[in-house]
Amino acid sequence: MDSIYENSSFILSTIASDEKPSQCNEREREVTSPKWIKVLLIVLGFSLVFALGGLCSLNNQHIMISKQLSAQEINGTSEETVSLMSCNHSVDGWIACRGKLYLFSSDKLNWSSSRDVCVSKGADLVTITNQTEQDFLVSKIKETHWTGLNDLETEGHWVWVNNQTLTETGVQFWFSEGQREPDNWKNQDPSGENCASLGDENGNFQSWFDASCKKQKKFICEKKY
Ligand SMILES: [Ca+2]
Ligand SMILES: [Ca+2]
């Protein structure tokens, strides 16, 4: 009997001892699984924080660039405005504007004599090389004025007094409504129209017209500032 008892106790103790690791493993699994989930959640959390941080950073950069661009636009506009405003100050009767001095004559002369007057003052008839210069000159005149543009040497080949062509300057503002200019009209002068003026007898100051070089007009001299 003692032997049977001892055997059964051994078996029971063996079963008991066998059960322990199994229960522990389950508990470990129960405990282990949430840990991994926690780690995963933490990693996801950090990733989300970094992603949000990145988005915020991108957004801030976008705002900064937008502000810089609008600041540049405002500066560009104000510089242009200030530049044109500063064109009102005169130096010995000449108006200084963007590195050039302009003289608007009060006398009316033919084109050749007009040019002679400009040259005698260390200048020449005006050359118009961009839209800003065109706009500035237009804003200053109340009647037609001679410019330095002519096709005296070769009919139809327009050059400025400094020999620059219209292709080289890249701008031209010929009158283009109805009767287009230049038209080399010969009814008043058989030699045609070989000198260009800003505006004509009807106004149109924003446009260029070819006219007889013998006509008496006011003129614009230009020299470097
Ligand atoms: Ca002509
Ligand atoms: Ca004409």
UniProtKB/TrEMBL annotation:
One Pfam family matching this protein: Lectin_C
GO molecular function terms listed in the Swiss-Prot or TrEMBL record: carbohydrate binding
Subcellular location: Cell membrane
Record keywords, A-Z: Disulfide bond, Lectin, Membrane, Transmembrane, Transmembrane helix
Annotated PROSITE patterns: C_TYPE_LECTIN_1, C_TYPE_LECTIN_2
SMART domains: CLECT
SUPFAM superfamilies, sorted: C-type lectin-like
InterPro entries xrefs: C-type_lectin-like, C-type_lectin-like/link_sf, C-type_lectin/matrix_domain, C-type_lectin_CS, CD209-like_CTLD, CTDL_fold
Membrane topology, as annotated: Single-pass type II membrane protein
Predominant location: membrane
TM regions (residue ranges): 36-58
Domain C-type lectin span(s) in chain numbering: 97-222
Entry GO CC: plasma membrane
PANTHER family per the UniProt record, alphabetical: C-TYPE LECTIN DOMAIN-CONTAINING PROTEIN 180 (PTHR45710), RH26557P (PTHR45710:SF26)
Protein name: Si:ch211-133n4.12
